[in-house]
């Protein structure tokens, strides 16, 4: 580890050692280094190749997630010098839910999804007074929008040029859904959304309890439909548990704000997969469209 980075870490937590990941840790998150302080406490050093992601997560922890919660890692600071970008946070117990989900019965899954939905709503509510625009957290004025309509059109406009890669029905649905953006979301208020709120980033302990959520580099000011969509492809009982924690009921699934967003999300995901030859994206996009067809009014 670079000496300058080591000295910075010591300025935050004192002397430390790098430890191996004995618990399986954060699964595929290979940009994590596990540390132990002289006091025996565990920490995570997260390294970034992309400075924009580092900036977003630094802003997220420093300004938006800085309230007391056992389910959010404690933030000790961000480091950026040359080509080294890092944040130092506390280590949550356990492993990712994605790495262990087949071990869980329905009652445990419902409990975890309920708690995750509850945390999503808490993060949203704690920042409602800061929600003045849509788009990126990096405060770059060129990447922010005053209305939900502007934000959503910027998000989905680029896919219109590639509608020839999907069949005619999907192309027409995309154009119809895109043209409805101004009408449907005209007065939609901004909320804080985690676009990477998935089981890959939910931590669970040896007692099968949610210990917290990691990875906030895709936090953005968006709309509620994005948060609701986080569990749309899960089993029905899991969706119900998440919604109960988040504070909505199943009626939201037939709301046109949700269904219109789901159509745009599904088709854009298919387009992305086809253009970039990513079969998994095509598969997920088709599942989203199937969910759209099952829930539309």
From TrEMBL:
The name this protein goes by in its record: Phosphotransferase
Q: Which residues form the Aminoglycoside phosphotransferase domain?
A: 29-223
Against Pfam families, the record matches this protein to: APH (PF01636)
Lineage of origin: Bacteria, Bacillati, Bacillota, Clostridia, Eubacteriales
Q: Which domain of life is it from?
A: Bacteria
Coiled coil (residue ranges): none
């Amino acid at each position: 580890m670079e000496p300058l980075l080591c000295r910075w870490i010591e300025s935050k937590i004192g002397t430390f050692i790098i430890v191996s990941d004995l618990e399986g840790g954060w699964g595929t998150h290979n940009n994590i280094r596990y540390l132990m302080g002289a006091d025996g406490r565990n920490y995570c050093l997260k390294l970034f190749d992309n400075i924009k992601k580092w900036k977003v997560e630094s802003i997220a922890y420093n300004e938006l997630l800085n309230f007391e919660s056992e389910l959010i890692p404690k933030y000790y600071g961000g480091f950026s010098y040359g080509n080294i970008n890092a944040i130092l946070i506390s280590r949550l117990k356990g492993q990712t839910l994605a790495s262990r989900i087949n071990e869980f019965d329905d009652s445990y899954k419902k409990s975890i999804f309920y708690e995750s939905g509850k945390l999503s709503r808490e993060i949203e509510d704690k920042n409602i007074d800061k929600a003045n625009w849509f788009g990126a957290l990096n405060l770059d004025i060129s990447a922010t929008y005053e209305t939900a309509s502007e934000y959503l059109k910027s998000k989905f406009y680029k896919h219109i040029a590639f509608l020839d890669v999907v069949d005619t029905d999907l192309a027409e649905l995309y154009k119809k859904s895109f043209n409805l953006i101004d009408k449907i979301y005209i007065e939609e208020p901004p909320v804080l959304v985690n676009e990477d709120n998935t089981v890959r980033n939910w931590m669970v302990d040896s007692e099968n309890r949610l210990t917290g959520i990691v990875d906030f580099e895709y936090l953005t000011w968006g709309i509620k439909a994005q948060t609701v969509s986080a569990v749309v492809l899960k089993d029905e009982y899991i969706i119900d548990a998440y919604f109960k924690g988040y504070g909505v009921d199943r009626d939201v699934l037939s709301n046109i704000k949700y269904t219109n967003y789901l159509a745009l999300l599904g088709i854009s995901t298919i387009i992305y997969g086809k253009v970039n030859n990513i079969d998994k994206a095509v598969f997920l996009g088709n599942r989203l469209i199937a969910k759209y067809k099952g829930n539309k009014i």
